[in-house]
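cron nightly-structures :: item 1 of 1
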Amino acid sequence: MGISTINVLGAPLAEVNLDTATEFLLNAASAGRKGYVCVVSVHGVVESQFNTKFLDALNNSLLNTPDGMPLVWFGRISGYSKISRVYGPDLMLRMMQATRDGRFSHFFFGGAPGVAEQLKKEFEQRYSGVKIVGTFTPPFRPLNEIELAALKTTLNEVRPHFFWVGLGTPKQEIFMMEHSEHLNAGIMLGVGAAFDFHSGRIQQAPRWIRHNGFEWLFRLIKEPRRLWMRYAVIVPVFLWHVFLSATRIRSYPLSRKRPFEL
């Protein structure tokens, strides 16, 4: 299953939608594939301009999906008509629905204390039959050797097919790149705020706002102190780099060596 790769200012993005991304992941799990999935937003694209380790993570992933509407618009303008938003929280819900027959198992890693456990309870109630085999709440720093050993031991026992990571960008993508080959975790998926949204810790924007590209404004109103600086910087920087690319003042070559494929 080959998927077209879109060059977004040097960051590779797959031409997928929620249906094709879900099908890809189920097929990959059935085939025993390992790797990790990045849901990429404008924040991620801008981060990749300055953070080479994060860009390396995007270039070595199993799949990168368009998490935000601006990237969907970018893809369509660039001629990729099959692309639509694959929002991390929506992908998580779709995968829970698709695996409620118990064929595949899940593990939740991330969130503030108690969030992953609450998320497990919520999904087990909402999706009867879904198989969630464990949770792990990491500290707000890299895991030390003892903590990493404990995680490895747990994963060797439960062997999840899907390992959901809620650490935020770029921390979660770098974590997945560094550990996906060494942990018995199947396919890792970095979905950031999905843990907080689906556990009820943070209110999610209404669907019509999300689909029209204004989720950033909703979140800014809800969390102005934490997010105002991010959006004040990200949007102008992204538009500036789009201008440089469109006018060919600067080139943004892809460094990914292999396509997105099953």
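cron nightly-structures :: done
The CA atoms of residues 217 and 231 lie 9 Å apart.
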